[in-house]
């Protein structure tokens, strides 16, 4: 699997999804093209999916928010006759390298989370209308929706058959949403996850696995009714028209990727990628009308989209590069001005969408299993949303005082009000709250520095960066850090970093990713699943998996 | 000592499984029974329920003399639970448990797989009765009406057989599935039967004969492979069901044969030699051979769909775990494990039909379908002999296996009966040449007038050569209740 995976798509290229817009209601139909797999060697039968299907879905959800703000309710359903969705394609999983499986699961979970975020952030609600078999990842799609309707035809069911069938977990969000979101009783959940054929009809309602069942003959009508009611009751403000998410300007080269505001340099011999974010190239728009007119061209939106794509590209296509270095270039004041327009217009739908998108992109960075470092050089613009990078990364290094022959503006860090609640992490705390978990008063104190360009000694003193080095030490310290990092075991790094990044309380989101990382990825390594005789390898051959019965 | 050959009538449910001593299962079945009777009573038109029908009832599972014939009102038919005699020391005939003792209880690890197979099989049994519910009203003779009812009550008994297994071996889940078998119903929008062919209409008697010839033969193949099951109660149940199934196919084969007979006799009597002189032939009140071919095409292909995907994980799992075997498993000369064997499977690549060798384990469905095709060809040959003898130049053919398919590799392409791939437009334009059109259906429907006088037959069908239970030609097989 060496082909480059592209995370950019648009509706004209969709092969697996169809959408009908009907005022405040969008009908989203899953119609997976069997022959449309991202890789060779499997067919996407029975609406099963691979990363390619999910990339389109992520695009659907994203565009729904920007291009179709008039939509208040999205109804997800299947365009296939007897099946809603059979889940992740097993042959794809069986044939995939471990790293691909992990990235696939991570991305699908990030996408499922965007369903819930759409409701929480924008009041765009997802409901799921299940007809036919809805199994494994298919049920996880349903679980990501906030309301599940199931037809009561005495055949259609919801199921998480992974344990009995494949010896892996419905762990990519499935188990967690069953207990934490649907609040299914644990013993019933235990039964549910042990039976291949799942649960149908009224029992599925009794067990809280779905919200409603209806006879087949009235099902479509009831779904339409429910969608109408939810749209009518929605608190989402009416917006007549969205903005178009135009294609990114992007070019690939052997040693990097160039976007309009983001530059990715690949330093393969040092197993490192450098992402340089360029600050705004124009003044902030005067008001939200101007901002809306500029649409996807606005720096705030363009930069978020490009950064998002760059991260996904590195995650999936550059797996050998274990260290990602973040740099910025530009005028911190300009970054703050662009952010300020949006912060000051939180009740404008588009301002809200762009800020919420930044929240998601930053979470994506939190969730990236590479060593992350911020290098704060002179001439950089770590301010507002870009300052968040400093606390998303594992360590940060900042230039202290003037450097010989360097006439760029002195390195500074500038906080904005945005750093105090606009971009929470998966644990629902801000990055600053998470950083100063033991000294919450520090967060309060930092508020008095909002808007102040903090030079390295102050930033170090305030705990906003790891190290400040002057001209004499800088080069060596940074080099030593990078060399040391490159020498550690990548597995130990991934584990250590993930443990350290998410201090503080658990949320459903942190539990989903934590359990995915810990349990599913452990099982994905174990011979009982992926060994020559493991269930995942043997799936489809008719021969059962052979298990080592020792409990570990 | 339990009598396992003769049917015991000491409970409401005739059986040879010692039901009177198995209080728990007896109670469960008695609880299910009223729902079943309601289902039956709501289904078959009332005047037939009150009629006396000359039916055979199983009285033993001894292959010789297992049934006796008598007049009975259908709702009083002794539906029972009958298992073929146990084979002493039976071993599992295939898969990874090959040679181990057959299971008398459900192995926990295969419970769900077994339950699913039994539910799917069970779902077909009442399905066909539902499809055929109104045919009695247009029966071409009392003989045929009796055959219809015989098939119906036996399908009802097959439902009982599957329900018994569910109730006895699958606990509360099994009981729920048993109840759901009475909830789903053929063609229902709310809860259709599980398999496509059992939701299609059986609009006329020629369809009924084609159905019993082709679709019941799928049933036969499924039962044959379940009869190989390492789960012994399922094996024994299916073995006994097969004796009844044979009669259903007999009804189909002779029914189609007699339809052909009436047609060629009428053609010869009127000097028509061209089988395509359709209007003239139809004017004689018989069904022209090309239309019979179209009906054959339809029912044959719907039946092929019942074999599922050519390459199937479920089928592979079922075989390997010793749950479901192949047709005539014991007579196949191989290792019965298929770990390394391959089997040729048709597929479509770049617009061409070709065969590829795939692991034989995954091609179990394909193999069963191939066996079915051979089995189904036999009767077609006999029908052609009838035609040949009459001097009419016409030959019925089984269409290419890719023709008119909804399931499997051929479902995405249009293929004509000779196996040529067509464009979607051509298919739209030409399908009426190969499948019954509305006009064909209307014509056949116009012939479907009841003929209830003993010994008399509707114009479009010839009398049978011999009567049921060797009864004379004018025997009153059904004493109609005229309200
Ligand atoms: Fe049957
Ligand atoms: Fe039958």
Number of strands of chain B: 7
Q: What is the CA-atom radius of gyration of chain A, in angstroms?
A: 24 Å
Low-confidence stretches of chain A: none
Q: Give the biggest sheet of chain A.
A: 8 strands, mixed
Quick structural overview:
The complex is a heterodimer of chains A (552) and B (483). Chain A has 552 residues and is an alpha/beta fold.
Explain the layout of strands and helices.
The complex is a heterodimer of chains A (552) and B (483).
Chain A: E1 17-22, E2 25-30, E3 48-49, H1 51-66, E4 73-78, E5 83-85, E6 87-88, H2 90-95, H3 98-122, E7 125-130, E8 133-135, H4 137-144, E9 147-151, E10 157-159, H5 162-166, H6 174-181, H7 186-192, E11 199-200, H8 201-206, E12 212-214, H9 216-233, E13 250-253, E14 256-259, E15 262-267, E16 272-278, H10 288-294, H11 299-317, E17 323-329, H12 332-343, H13 349-366, E18 371-376, E19 382-383, H14 388-392, E20 395-399, E21 412-414, H15 431-435, H16 440-446, E22 453-455, H17 456-461, E23 467-469, H18 474-487, H19 490-501, H20 508-523, H21 527-530, H22 535-538
Chain B: H1 23-43, H2 46-50, E1 52-58, E2 67-73, H3 111-131, H4 142-169, H5 171-183, H6 205-226, H7 232-269, H8 278-283, H9 289-305, H10 313-320, E3 342-349, E4 352-359, H11 364-390, E5 414-415, E6 421-422, H12 424-434, H13 438-447, E7 478-479
Antiparallel strand pairs in B: 1-2, 1-7, 3-4, 5-6
The structure holds fe (ii) ion (2 copies).
GO molecular function, one term (chain A): lyase activity
Protein name (chain A): 2,3-dihydro-2,3-dihydroxybenzoyl-CoA ring cleavage enzyme
GO biological process, one term (chain A): fatty acid beta-oxidation
Descriptive key words:
A: alpha/beta; 2-enoyl-CoA Hydratase, Chain A, domain 1; 8-stranded mixed beta sheet; 6-stranded mixed beta sheet; B: 483 residues; mainly alpha; Ribonucleotide Reductase, subunit A; 3-stranded antiparallel beta sheet; two-stranded antiparallel sheet
